[in-house]
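Progress against Task 2.4 (sequence-to-structure conversion) is shown through the following example record, which the project officer requested during the mid-term review.
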Amino acid sequence: MKIGLIVIGKTDARYFAEAIEEYRGRLTHYIPFEMEVIPDIKNAKNLSEAQQKEREGELILKALQPGDYLVLLDEHGKEFTSMQFSAYIEKKMHAVPKRLLFVVGGPYGFSEAVYRAASEKISLSKMTFSHQMIRLIFIEQLYRAMTILNGEPYHHE
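Structure tokens generated for the chain above:
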């Protein structure tokens, strides 16, 4: 199984990009991980929120392959502690045959078509984070989950 993260738009802030790359490198010691960046929608300022969500949704759905298990990172999703998230990942590693894909939506969230295609939603916090920051938070938590599953001392209770 592979784990993937789909995001809209590149990470502009160098310090976030560097940290994301650091954790991506660490993750490859445990599991195949890929991050797919869908380019920002051109002329988005001329589109309504609904139109922007629809266009982004089309691109997200186009990135999917048969057999993918889609999980939206959504403020209304299920919340986990780091220990619970590691158990969730372990369970998915045994149940998902191909790719376990997590998606960070655009600034207005997901289109209805993306919500329908998703298997579930999880939330990383009740707080709101920038789209740049949530990528780093997710990748760090995924790395933390892998170290927990491997009995390594990165995570402390």
